[in-house]
Batch of 2 targets.
Target 1
Amino acid sequence: MNTAGPTAELSPATLEAQARQALEEGDLLAATNAAKSLVMQQRDAPQGYFLLGIAAEQAGQIDNAVLLLEAAAQRGPEAEHLAQLARLLSLLHRDGEAANVARKALVLDPSDARTLDTIGCVLTRIGDHEGAIAPFTSAVAIEPDNLDFRYNLAAAASFTGQVEAARENYEAILSTDPGNARAHYALAILSRQTAAANHVPRLRQVLTEASDPDDALRIRYALAKELEDLGDAEAFEHLSTANAQHKRALQYDFADDAAIFDAIEALFAGRDGKLFAGEGNPDGSPIFVTGMPRTGTTLVDRILSSHHHVASAGELQAMPVAVKRLAGTPSRKVIDAETVQASGDIEPQRIGEAYMAQAAPHRPSEGSRFIDKLPANFLYIGHIARALPNARIVCLRRNPLDTVWSNYKNLFASQSAYYAYSYDLMDTARYYARFARLMALWDRLFPGRVLQLSYEELVADQESQTRRLLDHCGLDWDEACLNFHESKAAVATPSAAQVRRPLNADAVGRWRAHEKTLAPICDWFEEQGIPTG
């Protein structure tokens, strides 16, 4: 595209077309020049400000982009402009504003598929999976051949329990793009595979054709999951290959996580938990369900949210974001040693108020009890205990070897720092050991604040452990909690298929199928004094 020469004499329609084309081509200078000329010609029209905002975003200037998109919205709201503004607000964890703006965009009845898909993605990010179904469905109806739009619809259908609709959309993707790794993995985890119904032959074939490392990673995970469902020990070979490659790509070093644990222990143990001055926020509505991933947090969330006084808000980033913002540290990581250290000087009430404000858009109704089931909140129990003294905290505990194996075999958000340890068995074992040590510290500093709930005991004696759970959370008995699997609420975790079935012991002791592989981990746990049961 020719970026030279004046543009001011061109018509607004031509300038807008030039700016959009330049954005598609990645020519930010040309896009900015055309958009500026458009603003100069039409200062009270929204299009120039919108296009300047998109150019600023692509240049990495997110805060400036938000201001420009807000200026566009003030000059006459258009669905496309509001949808993109909502997307940026959600990226900045301004969830309440993002939700409001996305819903305003939807009310404007957009007719272009990308805007509809963007609205659906924003609603998904804030946990409104049911609300995302309609815009995703409309986007696919307008552009049925857009595989990204169809994937988003399939994922939303899966989250909301529409398993067959999800399956049909994933298969439609694969009919057009047989090597689509995301669809293959999503199909593998959608339900338990059987000898009569599985995708193993197809997965073996597409694995031989996968040239992209990320595609091969997902396909190997899909293959491992299906092979484990079938009881085939070959599952470990695929996991080992995929995880080793991904760990190298991430350049993960356990020392990074160890530094965070060290900082937390130094901060809290050094002052016996008395580092904050003043009282916290007295709101008692939050129930924090924490623990290592894949230890039953989704199950307990489902049990509690079946209670008539409780609703699930999902896996919120509200506490990590609140602490990070108030700590004011410059790193891009939501948690690191510097942020932990700086958080010790924050008044507890400020943390509590910031948390409640961040969580508010995710609460199904004001005034009700709500569950925040971000597993990694176990790192923040010290902050929670002081900042929200009336909140209830539950931590799931599961057999160490089952915990290690289940973390190792599940593909979490592949670029998330929260789960970077999980691509190596020994790293995962080390992480478990530090988790267990930190939970012992919380028990010492805040006795009685955290209910450490055994997954195995819950499976073995559902009713008595459920009563114990409800009692800790200050809830009366509700028979519906025993029938959690009948709930129609959305589930957006790898446990979605399991929690839609009655409680069972299928996952207890599953590590034993790989006992020889896990023998070094078992020996290491014994050396650390961690019983493996």
Target 2
Amino acid sequence: MSANSKISAITQRIVERSKPTRGLYLERISAAAQKGVHRSVLGCANLAHGFAVCSPSDKAALAGDVVGNLGIITAYNDMLSAHQPFESYPALIRDAAREAGGVAQVAGGVPAMCDGVTQGQPGMELSLFSRDLIAMAAGIGLSHNMFDAVVYLGVCDKIVPGLAMAALTFGHLPAIFVPAGPMTSGLPNDEKSRVRQLYAEGKVGREELLEAESKSYHGPGTCTFYGTANSNQMLMEIMGFHMPGASFINPGTPLRDALTKEAAKRALAITAQGNEFTPAGEMIDERSIVNGVVGLHATGGSTNHTLHLLAIAKAAGIQLTWEDISDLSDVVPLLARVYPNGLADVNHFHAAGGMGFLIKELLKDGMLHDDVRTVFGHGLEAYTIDPRLGEDGTVVRDKAPEVSHDPKVLTTIDKPFQANGGLKMLTGNLGKAVIKISAVKPERHVIEAPAIVFNDQAELQQAFKDGKLERDFIAVVRFQGPKANGMPELHKLTPPLGVLQDRGFKVALVTDGRMSGASGKVPAAIHMTPEAVNGGAIAKVRDGDMIRLDAVNGTVEVLVDDAEFNARPVATADLSANEYGMGRELFAPFRAMVGAADQGASVVFN
């Protein structure tokens, strides 16, 4: 099954644009793969160090260099709910590898920080940079040159993109991503949001807020709203990095363990030693990247992936742009309503038919490239399934349901919730930005109001508390870009802006910072490029300037005479407070080297 003409045309222009870099990349990973089983090039002392703590049988297997050795890159820690389940995975993977006649070793660990913990805190300024650091850390683990394939254990916001960048950097090796799954449903997300707004208004105290948050985030697994973490899982499945049906099975269940064991065995089956060699860098191509973008639009996924997908693509020599993402959004319909785009959570999405139903519907209209390689084989048709546990404890895959089990959560291609994905690029005299409008009411898609300028998110919070924002306005929050302070998420601004919007005011946000994948009902032009610290036009905006944010026509402009606006000096800000504390001093080189947001805001691929 081929993609339709519109999808194919966008894909082809990415192919043409990427030919020089993609060709060079494929040459490099081909040369690495042709060196053969990599332990054979290690000296005896090198190899002895590499298997010193293995069991006698594993030592014998590795010494003979005739079995596959599976490297495990893990983001385990036991503070974060999404990654705590990974504690038991290495043992499961080692057992499965032995059953398949191979060996598995933990090659290395990578950091996994939680944006939920650091929202509005100094640590958030390390969040985006942690993505590239994770790629580097995974690279160190794999640099020992001991492995025939790799399984990557990661879930959340920057972890999976960083691991994907590593998997494609080591693209001569097969790679399978193994998720932990979402926590079971707790307090409904709309109720949590309601309590947050009440707290912002001073109508409930910290005790009530903490109780609501604790009922929402209550156990092992990812948060259940459709933010970046769960968008990651969707992407890994629709791009072919997951085993079919793996994304949204709860932790600690027999099916979850069966999927993990199956992934380990499959990773060994697709090494160069077998007949199905599937190096990650050849498997993931322009069609796979486009499939990921299509899935993002069809589900109303996280705005953070307008950064991450660019960086992931670049790791494979593929040149994806915001224009590509925006143009795909124009032709891909929204098929899922998951909070903040609806009231359901990802468990409800999975129960409604989940990834299998979604992929089946998208394939019907040629919205996806079916003719891709995946870790499971050839073609996305194999992912149109519903996984369950068989009587023998292995994974059984039934056909995806013909009809959605909940049409309010997951709909068909001929009855979409809206005709487009709602993730658009904006252009104008302020620069380039992106906006997600899948959760924004249509009457708020165009906002024209005077600017109120802030150089820090805390200034806006204080102005709200002081009652200074009871009017129509567009908040301009600047000096929040990657070079300024690491581009922290500004999700803490959602409750006060949401309160003001609910009071009937026209409000919007324009910023060179990020919003969470959970950003919702308030229109927000984010990732503004060039950023203020680079002399971007956002640094010329003054209080009272009229700004028009038009998500219908894809523009964001300050309505000031061009000659006057161009003649204005560029504002500066004292950023010294962002340079120290909570490890920020360690990341000064990252701030100096990072690329622009519309290039992926990457340190290593800028």
